[in-house]
Each structure stands twice: as C-alpha cells, then as structure tokens.
Amino acid sequence: MNITDDIKRQILQRTDIVEIVGEAIDLRQRGKNFLGLCPFHNDTHPSLNVSRELGIYKCFSCGAGGDAITFLMEYHRLSYIEAMKLLANKTGIVIPDENWHEKDNARTDKYEVALNALTAATEFYQRSLYTPTGMIARTLFTKRGFSDETIKEFSLGYSPDSWDATLNELKKQGFNEQALDDAGLIVKNESNQSLYDRFRNRAMFPIRDYLGKIIAFGARQLDVNDKLGKYINSPQTIVYDKSRTLYGLFQAKNDIRSRKSAILVEGYADVISMHQAGFKNTVASSGTALTKEQLDLLNRYCKKIYISYDGDSAGIEAAERALEIALDKGFDLLIVNLPKGEDPDSIVQKHGSRLFNTYLDNALSFLEFKISILKANGSISTPAGKSESVRSLIKIISKIPDRFQHDDYIRQLSTLIEISENQLHQIYDDKRTSENYGRKKQSVKTEITSHTLQKETDKEIPEQINSEKNNQMYSEIIIEEKEIIRAALTNKKVYELLTDKFESVGEKFISDVGKRLFELIMSHKGDFILNDLLHDENIRDSDKQYLTLITMNEEQPSNHWEKFRNNLPEQDLLRYIKDIIYKLEEININNELDRIQSLVKKAPIEEQLEMAKKIKECNEKLIKLKKFYEIE
Q1: Same domain membership, residue 258 and residue 200
Q2: What are phi and psi of 332, to 5 degrees?
Q3: Structural domain tally of the chain?
Q4: SS3 sequence of 350-405
Q5: Is the residue at 76 inside a domain?
C-alpha cells in the first residue's frame, strides 16, 4: 500500500471532516465550527468542536482531537491503512496497490488480514450459492420471498456441506490458518488438533459493521437433523463484538437518519424482509439481547425506536428487557404489538407493507405495553399487586434522562391505571428523595476513595499528574506567541513568510515553551502541518493537544485574528507579522527595564550609575525598534 505524502495531502484536501464526524454523531453548527456530544467520553453537554476550515476536531472536555484520519482510527478502531483507504474511496482518489494479493500477510495488520479473509469467504459462499448443491439455500431464500437484488444487497450465500471446503479455498488464496482462526471461520478439533470449517451446509448471512466491512456471519440451518441448532453465529473475534454490532445497520443508517427512527427486530430474515418491503430503517440485535453499546450505535442516527419482536412470550420478554435500557438512554420508545405466533417477516410476507404500517401506526407507548402485560398476568387485580406494579413503573419513569417527560408519563399512568396524579407524584417524590440520599452517600464514599486512590496514583504513576503541570507550563505562553503559533499552523502564506523573511522570529519568543513549540512547527513542511504534527510519534501528546486547542479555541488573541482569517493580502500579512515581532521585542526590552529598575534602589551608588546607562540603552532600543518597524 503506497500512501505517499502527496496522496495523503490530496485525500485530506478533498475530505470534509464535518461529514466524517457527522456520520457518527449529531453535529450542530455554531459560527464557523460544529458542535456535538463527544463519543470518546460520557459527554452530556456538547464538548466536541469540529472545524471544517482547519480539517480537525477537538473535545474541550476530554482532550480528544485530530483530523479525519485520527477520528476514523480512534472511533471505528481502524488501522491507518484502513482509514486512508476509506477516505480514498470517499474522495475518489486511487491509492497504488500493486501485487496486493502477493504481499506477505505477516507484514499486514492482523485485524485487516482477518477482514480480508471474511470478505474472501463471503465471495466463496456467494459463488457456492449458485452451484447445484447450493440450490437448497436458494430454495430457502426464494420461499422467504427474497429477490435476486435483495440477495445481492445483503451478500447472502451458502457454505458447502464439507468439513474443509472453506478452509481449503481460503488457504488457496493465500490466507494462513491463523488468519482464518482470527476471522472465526475455522474450529480446532481438540482430540486430534485438526482444523475444520465452522459453517457447513448452511444459508449464510454476512454481518457488516457500520462502515460496511464484513466482520462475522449468521448461519441458518438447512438440514433439520443438524445438531448445532437452527442458527449458529461467528464467535467473538478480534474484528467482531456481537454486543457492539447491529445487523443491517450499514444498509439502514441513511434511512434511519432521514426517517429519524429505527425499527428493531430480532432476526436476520426479519431485517431482510422488512428492507425488501420498504422498511429500510430496520436493524436487528441478532445473537444477543439488546445492549447499551448497540443503543449507542443507534443514538448517532435517531432518538426514536419501534421495537417489533415476535408476538410469542419470548419476544414479549425480550421487548420488556429492551425497553428499560432504551428508556435509560433517552430514546422515545414504541412497541409494535404483533399477534401471537407472528413476526415482522411473516407479516410482510403474508400481508405486505400496508398491514405492517397499520401496526406501526398503532404502536404502544412503553406504559401501555407494560400495563397490558400486568393486566394479562393479573398483577394489578389486587391492591397489593397494584401498589407493587405502580412502584415498578415509577422506577422506570424516574430513570428517563429528560425530567420534563416525567410529568407527562405520570399523567398517562394515572389514566391507564386509575390512580390519582397526586398519589403517583407522592410515590415519585419519595423515590427521588431516596435516590438522592443514596447518591449523596455514594458521592461521599467515591470522593474519599478517589482521594485515597489519587494519593496512591501520585506515588506510583507520576506521568498522570502531569496534566496540571502541563496547564501551568502552557500558560506561560504569552498572547503574541500564541497568535503567531496559531497563524503559522493555519495559514500557509504566514508559514511561508516566516520561513523566507523572518527566520529568527523564534529567538524573540519570551517563554521557553512557546519558543520550543514554534521551532517544532517550523521544522515541519507541507500543506498540512498540524496534521503532520498530530501523526508524529516523536511529539508528546500534551503538545499535540495544546496545538489542536490553540487552533480551535474561540477566544481570539487580538482584533488582528478576524482580519487575518479573512485571507489578507501578502502586504497586510507582512504588517501583521511585523506587529507581533515588534510586540515580542518590546516585551523583552521592557522586561529588562523592569529588572534593572527593581535593582537600582538597593544597589550602591557606583552600580546605580552603571544601571542608569543600561536604562538609557533600553529606552534607546525602544525608540530604534519603533522606527525600524514603523510603529506610530
């Protein structure tokens, strides 16, 4: 993979970082920048700033920051090569990739090799689907009503009825056994240490991540005598974490964003049938109960979820578990109440999209759903049962992050369960008081523990107490130094002028840290100096964070800044740089004056005469300085 500096420059020039970050989190424009909740820490107030102009992002809370490449690497756990390939595809730039299949896999990232193996396996399963033995899987897909276009869109396939067909095919393509094991495609026989295919004689459903990379498989039984069960899935691997994956999200994300809602179903076939019926905002938490991490994925695109699980008891129980964690995440939640024995797949197959739309239109609020279950099992038929049920519902309501919704839900609950609002508010207030007391106790305990741990950490890990020292260190940089550093980082013309006509400007810096950072900047050349600095492993992280911060901080050092950012002509840029250099030299001379004058009173007479000469020299320097820089 030959990614030259020139190719990197072209890719970054064509990349809109707002689009890259905006695909992961919701961004709102404020002035020139965009703000959003930082995905790298538990952010409750928008802390992440994204600058389209500078091509960088920065969280002013946790310190995360970088360019589009960094974001893809940190957020999506991509390697540098993967991030560059993704951006190259988006921008239409071709990265030379000669003899890719002949490269030594050992030199390539283990993660990427596993992904390549999964892609190769998918292609093999797709080819196998159209062989005579693959007819059994094609028949299953046909009975499900899947069209050829749908089969292609979801890359459906067939794993041959063989112990080693996949193993041999992928080894033939150059993948070693370690790569196949990392991808979860093979299993080791513990008794004789032999290797065999994990998936055999099954209809294959490739599972993609948010970016569209195939990371795992779901495999559906074709032989009723298969003892492994109706569905088997890929195991947890270096590329697949089932608790952080939603089936169909890659195909659904744009529709979820545009419709501002997602339909959550249980199985692979449910997702595919729903997409084919026009409900392209459908995803599934296949292979696991709904998790907080999966909800975090959905939270990037919408705040409203329709839960449409099977109408049997297992589906109802799964919906009950799902609604509590979804409400805790702040989602507007509705439950699609399907008839017993039906699922989304069967509804759209038998009756089409029209009937399912009716079910969506009549979806239940979480309170209606919970109360219908309580009534069905007789939980609210007695005073004691009713009291216990109300308290459990109040507990759920109190967990909803948006407090303004609580009163509305209490009013709904009052109507549905025939208890006065005053009584419900009393129960709610008692619960909140109890919780607040518990939180205070925990807070005191946490504070004591944190203090103790911090003392121990301070002894054992000195690096982690550097943050305060770093803040103090960077605070030594004066405003003029900050302004010239910011200008050199963000304006190519300023950088070129500093290089060509003001080579010694760094020597005029007052603070040592400012001088060091300026020299660091001037030692890098190119169109993307800040990006180069951020990817330089030899530069300390605190410097990277400060340089990112200084370019994005909304506090401007002077009135020059706004004029400067409006692309001043070279003549004005020269004036701008000269003004700053003059101020730096003036500060140096005045500092020397202050130092001498503070010593005069305490010095002997003979030394005072010598100091008077130095004071006179300093004043003469100031006059010459003003004349040289033509300062009025």
Answers
A1: no
A2: -80, 115
A3: 4
A4: HHCHHHHHHHHHCCEEHHHHHHHHHHHCCCCCCHHHHHHHHHHHHHHHHHCCCCHH
A5: yes
Report the greatest alpha carbon distance in the chain: 110
DSSP assignment letter at 328: H
CA distance 574 to 184: 61
Residues 515 and 625 both lie in one domain: yes
Residues 38 and 120 in one domain: no
pTM for the predicted model, two decimal places: 0.59
Residue 187: domain span = 103-240
Q: Is the pLDDT of residue 103 over 50?
A: no
| Spatial separation of the C-alpha atoms in residues 390 and 404, rounded to whole Å | 20
Per-residue burial over 154-173, b = 16 or more CB atoms within 10 Å of its CB, e = otherwise: bbbbbbbbbeebbbebbeee
The one-letter code for the residue type at 510 is I
The DSSP H or E segment spanning 307 is strand 304-307
Confidence of residue 424 (pLDDT cuts 50, 70, 90): low
Is pLDDT of 196 > 90? yes
Tell whether 66 and 177 lie within a shared domain: no
Element (H, E) at 51: strand 48-51
Three-class SS of residue 423?
helix
Is residue 37 assigned to a domain?
yes
What angle, rounded to 10 degrees, do the helices at 313-328 and 383-399 form?
50
Q: Give the whole-angstrom CA distance, residue 592 versus residue 618.
A: 8
